[in-house]
Write a structure and sequence with these properties.
Elements: E1 8-12, H1 19-28, E2 36-41, H2 46-57, E3 60-67, E4 70-76
Parallel strand pairs: 1-2
Antiparallel strand pairs: 2-4, 3-4
Helix pairs in contact: 1-2
């Protein structure tokens, strides 16, 4: 269990760059400001891509972790 309570989970496993970021960008708009989106991805490039995306959009990357082959990201919607 995570210390964050995601409002929604986006399963982007099996998708290659740039699709995890594209889907994250779309999905973040479907949750309320201040809420947390959990993103699951298997593309190793998603680690750098998600970090860069959060910096460029102003959303807050609360945590990123690797669990086996799955990268987990917890992103708080800021605006």
């Amino acid at each position: 269990m995570s210390e964050f309570s995601p409002e929604k989970t986006l399963d982007a496993t099996g998708l290659k760059c740039p699709m995890p970021v594209v889907k994250t960008s779309k999905e973040i708009k479907s949750i309320s400001v201040g809420a947390v989106l959990e993103v699951l991805a298997t593309d190793p490039g998603s680690m750098a891509d998600i970090m860069a995306w959060t910096k460029s959009t102003g959303n807050e990357l609360l945590k990123s972790a690797k669990d086996g082959d799955v990268f987990k990201f917890y992103i708080r919607r800021v605006k």
